[in-house]
């Protein structure tokens, strides 16, 4: 078997397509893809699973993420999607945070979860994050981000900014 090393490949005519092993090079893309974050603190009812209102898009290649109504990702291309979430839960005071959970729901059902419980040594703030791959049909499947904060007193909070609470996904190539 021989290898060909080149610095660039250009189609022989303007507007022509380049293919690699019979695959159109233009189809080798990680899109649809998006990332969104929670832009202001979200107060949540204690010990209640609540949708994270990740309302600020960092990017959304195919306009598949609704950041104003449903806060859901509905990709228009079938495939396997690498999906990730980060949720920072907070209690109102020191030593009042009993647990924090982050969830990815697929079509309104729990698909995956990260959970932390503090049985006696309660905290004030904690971050759950995880990632996984999810098969999507490209038409009706959708993903949503939920969180859960259990506090010993008062209401819980989802902290907000691009590094505290965010949700994203992108299509994997070759899967």
Q: SSE layout and pairings?
A:
Layout: E1 19-20, E2 23-24, E3 33-37, E4 42-44, E5 50-51, E6 56-60, E7 65-66, E8 72-73, E9 79-90, E10 97-106, E11 109-117, E12 125-136, E13 143-151, E14 156-158, E15 166-171
What does this structure look like?
By secondary structure, this protein is mostly beta strands. It has a single domain (31-171), classed as Jelly Rolls, CATH 2.60.120.40. It is 0% helix and 48% strand. It is built from no helices and 15 strands. It has strands spanning 19-20, 23-24, 33-37, 42-44, 50-51, 56-60, 65-66, 72-73, 79-90, 97-106, 109-117, 125-136, 143-151, 156-158, 166-171. Strands 3, 4, 6, 9, 12, 14 and 15 form a 7-stranded antiparallel β-sheet that branches. Strands 5, 7, 8, 10, 11 and 13 form a 6-stranded antiparallel β-sheet that branches. It has a two-stranded antiparallel ribbon with strand order 1-2. A hairpin with a 5-residue loop joins strand 7 (65-66) and strand 8.
Q: Can you tag this structure with a few keywords?
A:
175 residues, mainly beta, Jelly Rolls, seven-stranded antiparallel sheet, six-stranded antiparallel sheet, 15 strands, 0% helix, 48% strand, elongated
Q: Tell me the CATH topology.
A: Jelly Rolls
For the secondary structure, the number of strands is 15
| Unreliable segments of 5+ consecutive residues | none
Domains (count): 1
End-to-end distance: 25 Å
Rg from C-alpha positions? 20 Å
Secondary-structure content class = mainly beta
* Number of helical segments with 4 or more residues: 0
CATH architecture: Sandwich
Mean pLDDT: 91
Helix content: under 10%
Q: Could you give a short account of the major beta sheet?
A: 7 strands, antiparallel
- The level 1 CATH classification is Mainly Beta
Strand percentage, roughly? Answer: over 45%
Q: Characterize the overall form.
A: elongated
| Strand/helix succession | EEEEEEEEEEEEEEE
């Amino acid at each position: 078997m021989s290898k060909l090393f080149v610095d660039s490949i250009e189609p022989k005519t303007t507007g022509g397509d380049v293919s690699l092993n019979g695959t159109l090079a233009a189809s080798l893309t990680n899109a649809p893809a998006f990332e969104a974050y929670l832009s202001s603190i979200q107060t949540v009812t204690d010990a209640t699973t609540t949708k994270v209102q990740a309302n600020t898009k960092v990017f959304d290649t195919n306009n598949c993420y609704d950041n104003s109504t449903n806060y859901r990702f509905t990709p228009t291309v079938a495939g396997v999607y690498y999906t990730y979430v980060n949720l920072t839960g907070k209690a109102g005071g020191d030593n009042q945070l009993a647990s924090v959970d982050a969830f990815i729901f697929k079509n309104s059902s729990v698909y995956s979860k990260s959970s932390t419980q503090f049985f006696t040594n309660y905290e004030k703030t904690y971050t759950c994050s995880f990632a996984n791959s999810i098969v999507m049909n490209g038409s009706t499947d959708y993903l949503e981000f939920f969180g859960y904060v259990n506090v010993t007193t008062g209401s819980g909070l989802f902290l907000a900014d691009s590094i505290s609470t965010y949700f994203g996904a992108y299509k994997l190539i070759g899967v």
